[in-house]
């Protein structure tokens, strides 16, 4: 059998561009006294890419899934690892084995983590999360936060209280603003007053907080951010850093059929492959191409951004993507490869799909 050179769908990760994005953001944050945790859940913590984070000299590398942290440790990553989803009570033994730091919001889980650390004979660092209105994880009640902090500090002897943090913009779409950061600092200072010492870390959020570093409005006591998406895509809602590459990831798919067909389905309509009632625009007969990848690989086709000028996204089923190529500059043929930019959701799905072939473009810069 002929050896295949390239396999599709293919996801290319440009490690050089990723490394440059990391260096650029790290520098901007360093100037403001902010340490960076690189969050790798967006690309399933692929070790090849995570190694770029390891070499970038970050404060920590974080993921929401413990199995990803285990993979990184086993791949030889030496940067401290941070578990950023509140741990499950059933995973605390693995937590203290694979993570050095965790974000926490429940006293029962803190106690269980302390016992797991004792069993394993290790120390484990914790950051207490404060909910400032986005309504996902975090202490809502200030007294509950302070009593948890006091217990960690004074009684849970295998835990180190590293600081407090918050998360914004994930569930409640609440924007990270200097006012929200001041609220977090006030919570941190209440904890400090209770425990009688300064906290090492005040973690002011994720990519959605970086804009305050760039425009100089980040309050000075915020000294830590946990950044995923911005490093990977070069921009997020409300924050575009011109010096960051927007094309770290490239998705490539192969054309398996090109034909001129009506643009409106012919026959009595019911529902599509996913049980949805759809509407179709009648543009007359059009040249259309079928791609060998589908929603199983990337989620929603509306989230794919074609790099082919003139291409119109039509729709997708589990394993097929349909595009209108009537007006593309290039004359698209069977066997051609089409390229797409990703958004966060498509990146998450693609890196979790076993049918997507990963290709890593090595760093070219000398170290
Ligand atoms: C996902 C996540 C982050 C990173 O978010 P980005 O928007 O990708 O920067 C940070 N902190 C927590 C708790 C998260 O769940």
- Average residue pLDDT: 95
By CATH reckoning, the class of the largest domain would read Alpha Beta
Beta-strand content bin: 15-25%
Number of helices: 11
> How many separate domains make up the residues?
2
List keywords for this structure.
alpha/beta, binds pyridoxal-5'-phosphate, 18 strands, TIM Barrel, 367 residues, elongated
Structural summary, described in words:
The chain is α/β, with parallel strands linked by helices and 367 residues long. It folds into 2 domains: 201 residues, Alpha-Beta Barrel (TIM Barrel), CATH 3.20.20; 113 residues, no CATH class. 30% of the residues lie in helices and 24% in strands. It is built from 11 helices and 18 strands. Helix 3 runs parallel beside helix 4. The longest helix is centred in the middle third of the chain and has 18 residues. The radius of gyration is 23 Å and the shape is elongated. The model has no long low-confidence stretch (mean pLDDT 95). The protein binds pyridoxal-5'-phosphate (PLP). Pyridoxal-5'-phosphate (PLP) binds next to strand 9 and helix 9. The site of pyridoxal-5'-phosphate has 14 residues, from strand 9 and helix 9.
Helices and strands in order:
Layout: E1 10-14, H1 15-31, E2 35-39, H2 47-55, E3 60-63, H3 66-74, E4 81-83, H4 92-98, E5 101-104, H5 107-120, E6 124-129, H6 142-154, E7 159-165, H7 178-195, E8 201-203, H8 210-214, E9 224-227, H9 229-233, E10 235-236, E11 239-240, E12 249-262, E13 285-291, H10 295-298, E14 305-306, E15 312-316, E16 321-324, E17 337-341, H11 344-352, E18 357-361
Parallel strand pairs: 1-18, 2-3, 2-9, 3-4, 4-5, 5-6, 6-7, 7-8
Antiparallel strand pairs: 1-12, 10-11, 12-13, 12-17, 13-16, 14-17, 15-16
